[in-house]
């Protein structure tokens, strides 16, 4: 019998729609038979929007799916096991905390919180209430990432030496409302919190998780160019040095909100080769492995490509279902330590770049 996980969805915006659409795809299409997903509640600040969301996803005829005009009613629904939080960044803390206090497991969108102090507080609450908590770092669960990890950690290319990764997007910032979540500092606007998690996940997979690193944290340098429109970070770069262990490697990461991404979006160079990951780096469908000779010339090149039904947001959901089924409080692939490292890095980059969120936005300091 497959284990069924019952989801409550918090908010009806763009990514909630994508996520639920993927949850509704038959797991057999991805060769998964041990877990299945069921939507039992959708919460919005407006009941009409919750109903419209359910309708748009073809769930209107399903009597088991409840529409609510508040988030609290979802947390308090006994037919919900896990809450998916997909509100703007600066609401993740309070929405997740409310869910945890109602003893619900939580999958929270990236960036997991506005700062590291908020995340520490959430993790303490999750522990106290005995619930599973994970940041929705769906990239880590992609088939391409799992295959990348096998090659990267195997040593067949030698140790990693540098990671260059960028995720950018041209949001047409001159012509969108200042209240758009990418521009509004009250919503944690800017490149770092919105796009930064994705170049960073590649540095974490390639360097932080590399067996030679032994779990050692990097030193952090950050630089920010702000937009005069609202003062949020427009172009941000991060340098991470991993040199406290057997690994001596550097990651150079960037994100921008006024220009499109590069392709390949990630290049990882090793002692005897390189891996180039195709954009979009949050859900890559292919990468190329290059093997070098002693002079650094490419002797062999192999492309790996991946295909599946839908957008691929269900791979993380399958992980959540298995962890909850097995009474685990965190995922072994994207555990609390990695979200903590992410938020420590973002805090430090914002500090070095002089980007302070408006007073009251960060709920824990
Ligand atoms: N994993 C990914 O690939 C991915 C992609 C995009 C976004 N995200 C993340 O998901 C989160 C949501 O992004 P999104 O693109 O879905 O945003 P969105 O389309 O603007 O939706 C956000 C939803 O949050 C709710 N909300 C609650 N308080 C709000 C407020 N003060 N202002 C605006 N909306 C508010 C609204 O739903 P109700 O009115 O129904 O309550 C709104 O529809 C962000 O943290 C983002 O980083 C992840």
UniProtKB/TrEMBL annotation:
Bilayer-spanning residue ranges: none
Enzyme Commission number: 1.1.1.179
Superkingdom per UniProt: Eukaryota
GO molecular function terms noted in the UniProt entry: D-xylose 1-dehydrogenase (NADP+) activity; nucleotide binding
Span of domain Gfo/Idh/MocA-like oxidoreductase N-terminal: 5-134
Organism, scientific name: Rhodocollybia butyracea
Catalytic activities: D-xylose + NADP(+) = D-xylono-1,5-lactone + NADPH + H(+)
Keyword entries, A-Z: Oxidoreductase
Location of the GFO/IDH/MocA-like oxidoreductase domain: 147-275
Cleaved signal peptide residues: none
The name this protein goes by in its record: D-xylose 1-dehydrogenase (NADP(+), D-xylono-1,5-lactone-forming)
Protein family per UniProt: Belongs to the Gfo/Idh/MocA family.
């Amino acid at each position: 019998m497959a284990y069924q996980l019952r989801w409550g969805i918090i908010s009806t915006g763009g990514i909630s729609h994508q996520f639920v659409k993927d949850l509704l795809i038959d797991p057999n299409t991805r060769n998964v038979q041990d877990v299945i997903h069921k939507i039992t509640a959708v919460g919005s600040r407006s009941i009409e929007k919750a109903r419209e969301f359910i309708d748009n996803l073809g769930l209107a005829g399903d009597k088991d799916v409840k529409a609510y005009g508040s988030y609290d009613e979802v947390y308090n629904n006994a037919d919900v096991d896990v809450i998916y939080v997909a509100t703007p960044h600066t609401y993740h803390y309070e929405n997740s905390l409310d869910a945890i206090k109602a003893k619900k497991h939580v999958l929270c969108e990236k960036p997991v919180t506005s700062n590291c102090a908020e995340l520490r507080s959430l993790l303490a609450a999750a522990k106290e209430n005995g619930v599973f908590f994970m940041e929705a770092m769906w990239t880590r669960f992609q088939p391409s990432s799992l295959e990348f990890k096998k090659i990267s950690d195997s040593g067949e290319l030698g140790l990693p030496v540098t990671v260059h990764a960028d995720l950018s997007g041209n949001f047409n910032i001159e012509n969108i409302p200042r209240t758009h979540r990418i521009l509004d500092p009250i919503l944690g606007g800017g490149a770092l919190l919105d796009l930064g998690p994705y170049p960073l996940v590649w540095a974490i997979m390639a360097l932080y998780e590399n067996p030679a690193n032994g779990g050692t944290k990097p030193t952090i340098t950050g630089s920010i160019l702000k937009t005069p429109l609202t003062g949020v970070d427009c172009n941000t770069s991060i340098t991470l040095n991993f040199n406290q262990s057997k690994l001596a490697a550097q990651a150079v990461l960037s994100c921008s909100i006024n220009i499109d991404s590069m392709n390949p979006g990630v290049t990882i160079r090793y002692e005897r080769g390189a891996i180039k990951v195709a954009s979009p780096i949050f859900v890559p469908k292919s990468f190329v492995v290059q093997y070098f000779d002693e002079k650094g010339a490419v002797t062999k090149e192999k492309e790996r490509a991946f295909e599946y039904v839908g957008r691929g947001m269900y791979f993380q959901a399958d992980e959540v279902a298995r962890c909850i089924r097995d009474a685990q409080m965190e995922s072994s692939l994207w555990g609390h330590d990695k979200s903590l490292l992410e938020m420590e890095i973002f805090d430090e980059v914002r500090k070095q770049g002089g980007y302070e969120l408006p007073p009251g936005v960060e709920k824990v300091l």
